[in-house]
Amino acid sequence: MQILDGKIVSQAVKEELKQQVIKIKESGKRVPHLAAVLVGNNGASETYISSKKKNCEDIGFSSSVIRLDENIEEIELIEVIKKMNEDDSIDGILVQLPLPKQINEQKIIHLIDPSKDVDGLHPFNTGKLVQGLPTFIPATPFGIMLMLEHYNIPTSGKHAVVLGRSNIVGRPISILLSQPHQFGNCTVTVCHSKSNNIKDICLQGDIVIAAVGIPEYVKADMIKEGAVVVDVGITRITDETKKSGFSIVGDVMFETVAPKCSYITPVPGGVGLMTIAALLKNTFQAYTLRKGE
């Protein structure tokens, strides 16, 4: 069993970007700029935004955060997005989800200029992804693909089982794994809350992507010997043995599943780190396309 270490892979991605930014600075040009919008003060969102900002600083990107009140009216947020779309100094825009209930998330996502949609959620970019055209890939699926590539994990002809069908992870990773490229060409089965015989389907998986948001949902009796398991989940659970009072666990029961795997991602330290690395790559791509380089 080998750990798919998100720290190692994300550092490699960031180091490559850092070297490219150094060259940009040496040429006297402005550096890529990622701008984030945070509505309210959700603790998890605050942590994620802070991490994105720090990672931008680490590699030399410019970053900014627009903080808005929890009770903001939708029209006010719309105006903020429009101004960001028109701002030529901004290359990538992300709106931290979830948004408050008075705001229509889909409407806001659709308003973002597709050329700045580094989260890869705009229908324009989703359509290009489906057709196999170059586009911004949602960060978590993109991060998973970067990890498979880094560890040179064979995928062609393999049966990939994806647990979850969200637009952020499940659907896009199923598309990417089925596409005709070196780390694709899988036969893909997508399971969800209405699927029958999930355990039997998982046992057929050479590659299992767990993205259901249920702590330790995937048990050892659901995974065959030698499978590659990628755990996308991350949940806080009460743990009185910890000073913090909680532990971080994934969708996979790591301790019992790991011994059966050829490769497995840990939680934390796996896909989460790759999500941010992939977002940075998307931002650099947006910068390059906008600069015509």
Write the layout of secondary structure elements.
Elements lengths: L1 E2 L2 H21 L6 E7 L3 H17 L2 E7 L5 H13 L5 E4 L9 H7 L11 H8 L8 H12 L8 E5 L6 H9 L8 E5 L6 H5 L4 E4 L16 E5 L3 E4 L7 E4 L4 H4 L3 E4 L6 H21 L2
Parallel strand pairs: 1-11, 2-3, 2-4, 5-6, 5-7, 7-8, 8-11
Antiparallel strand pairs: 9-10
Put the structure in a nutshell.
The protein is an alpha/beta fold.
- Per CATH, which architecture of the largest domain? 3-Layer(aba) Sandwich
Main sheet summary: 6 strands, parallel
Rounded Rg: 19 Å
Helix proportion:
25-40%
* CATH topology grouping of the largest domain: Rossmann fold
Mean pLDDT: 94
User: What is the total tally of β strands?
Assistant: 11
Instruction: Name the CATH class of the largest domain.
Output: Alpha Beta
Question: Largest beta sheet: what is the strand line-up?
Answer: 1-11-8-7-5-6
Count of helical regions: 10
Distance between the termini: 42 Å
Class of secondary structure makeup? alpha/beta
What is the H-and-E element order? Answer: EHEHEHEHHHEHEHEEEEHEH
CATH homologous group name of the largest domain:
NAD(P)-binding Rossmann-like Domain
Poorly predicted tracts of residues: none
Q: Give the overall shape.
A: globular
Bin the strand percentage. 15-25%
Number of domains: 2
What does this structure look like?
The chain has about 290 residues and is α/β, with parallel strands linked by helices. It folds into two domains: about 30-115, 3-Layer(aba) Sandwich (Rossmann fold); about 140-270, NAD(P)-binding Rossmann-like Domain (Rossmann fold, 3-Layer(aba) Sandwich), CATH 3.40.50. Helices cover about 40% and strands about 15% of the residues. The protein is built from ten helices and eleven strands. The strands form three sheets. It has a six-stranded parallel β-sheet. Strands 3-2-4 form a three-stranded parallel β-sheet, with helices on both faces. A two-stranded antiparallel sheet has the order 9-10. α2 (about 45-60) links the parallel β2 (about 35-40) and β3 (about 60-70). The termini are far apart. The model has no long low-confidence stretch (mean pLDDT about 95).
